[in-house]
Structure formats: C-alpha cells, structure tokens
Task: structure prediction
Amino acid sequence: MCERVSFSCKHELNHFISNSVENLYGTRFGGGMRSWRWYLSRVMRLFLRWFRLCLRRGRRKRTNRVRDLWNYGTVLMKSLYYNALTNSDTVLDCVFEPIYWLVDNMTRWFGVVFVSLVITLTSSIVIIVYLCVLPIIFSTYPLHWILWHLCYGHWNLLMLVFHYYKAITTCPGFPPQEKSDIPTVTICKKCIVPKPARTHHCSICNRCILKMDHHCPWLNNCVGHFNHRYFFSFCMFMTMGCIYCSISAKDMFLDAYNAIESSYQTPPPSFTREEKMLHKSLVYLWVLTSSVSVALGSLTLWHAVLITRAETSVERHINNRERTRLKLRGKIFRNPYHHGILNNWRRFFGVEKRSDWLTRVLLPSAHLPHEDGLLWDCPAYRNNTVVI
Result:
C-alpha cells in the first residue's frame, strides 16, 4: 500500500512539473513576453506545490511506519503472554522469572565457593583431630579405645572423601539427544527433546537429568541417577563422622570451654599460647561438628525416607499432588517404582547378594546403579491407581 501511495505521489508531482514547464515555456514562446515578476511567481508556486507534496508523502510514510511498529509490538506482546491454558501458576512463574534467573545464576557461580568451603571446613576438622584430639587420646585412653578410634576414624574419613569426590565428578546422567526407540513420557519444553520417565529439567545445569533429585550447590552438580548413591553415602558418612567427633571430644570441649571462661577471672590463669590455641580449636571442633550433625543429619533422614518410598525430592511433590487429585475421585495413588522397603534399599545401593552389603556399601565401590535411568522395572502386579 505504501508503494502504491508513493507511486501516485511521484506521478502527481511529475505531472505537475511537466504542466508547469509547458505553461512556462509555452507562454514565453507562444503567448508573448511576460514580466520577470510573473516568472518568479510561477517558480515560487511550483516550489511550494512540490514542497507540499513532499510533506504529504513523508507524513504518509511516517504514519504507516508508526502503525506497522505498533502492530508488530502488539503481536509480540500477545505472543509472550497469551496462552489458552494460562492460570495463576503460569502468571506467578512469569512474574518471578527474573528472580528464578538470578537465583539459578548465583547458585551456579556459588557452587565453586560452596565446594571450596566444604573442603576447607572438613580439612580444618581433620587437622585439629590429628594435632589436638589424637595426642590426648594416645596419652589418656586404654589400648582398645585407641585402636577403635584409629580404625573407625580413618574408615569414616576414607568413605567420606571417596563418596564426596565421586558425587562431584560423576555425571548424573542425561537423556539421549538424538532420536531413539526409548519410551518417553513427555517433551521437555526447555530442551525440546523427549524425556524418559523420572527425568526432569535442571534450570541451573540447563539440561534434563535422569532421575533428578535436586541440584546441590555443595556438590556444584546435580544429584541424578548415576551419583544419587554417592550423594546419600556422603551425607550419611559426614553425619556419622560429625557425631563421632562431637561425642568423642565432648569432655575435651567442656574442659576447654571452662578454661576459656576462667580467663575472665581475676587474676586470670596463666595459659601458654599453645594451650590457648588448643582450647579454641577444641571449642571450634565441637561447635562445628555438632551443628553439622544436626543440620546434615536431618537432611540425611529425609532422603532416607524418600529412598524407603522409592521417590526423589521432585517426585515427592508430584506424587503428593497426584495423590490429592485421585483422592477426590475416590481412588488411591500407588507409586509404580515402589518394590518394598528392603528391595528399594537394595536397588538403590546396587546390592545383588549378601556380600554386596560389605563390598558395595561399607567399602568404597564405584559400581553402576541397578537400572540405566532410561527404562524402569515396575512391579507387574501394581497399577498406578486403584479404586478405593
């Protein structure tokens, strides 16, 4: 339409110029001589007419461009928020999307800081144990207790370091990006690829994770199918180690705390610099290990409950919503991946025979999980829902 209007304006302007030139020269050569004022008026009139047509053409172009930009912006805004299935949850997700983006990026960046913090704090406890606690144990405890502390302490430290290293470095598992014959349950709206069962998208890793539990900033890694066992074992052995340190150093902590409190007396007792550092180190050890044992112990118990139910942290919320929805319809929800309490633990740890409880659970082992994370063995006698 703009080209049509532009063409008509050009045609009108050219027609006017040609007529004006014909009138001008025709009058000059065929109609007699005119005065210079008449020629000047004709030129000025021609210029004014040309200027008016140019303004009209520019106004039309400007109006059409503004209208096109307005229509484009309207379509763009409608494409951003229009959705036939829009509800309050979708609106809230859109409103909080900048906050989610900020949290995801901060978590990705702080993951390295959190891993360094775990290594630093754990190393500080180990150093204090070797420099402060073990000399006291060697000098005051009987032989059988010394052997117990040496054996249990080093075994716990070995299991802790091994599982933390494996939890950080092991890939949680990703679904195949190319086309395959693996059964899928849905399409990821972020990756635009098929998702197998129990697979969820991690906004921090920006990838789909097989049997995703959560993204752990203390690992700087997702907890998925192939490192879930390492994560839980690390939490379990870290909790056991903290409880062991806090119980073993309880009497030492009380003596060190009383010694620090006595320094405020008049006159203060005469402690050497090494003794003061020893007292502060023992207080630091007991406070840190006791706090971690309570906080991390609660998390470990929660994950133990989830393993008992054959659920992940994500599936826990999904199953609760599904359980509530089916309850209103007179049905009961049953987890299709639940094989029984003991079998759930065996499948989680990859135990196939009795000796595996020793070689795969109580000793460092890098064996693979029971399933591949793409296909799941569901009990044939169980259905997702049954009528009450």
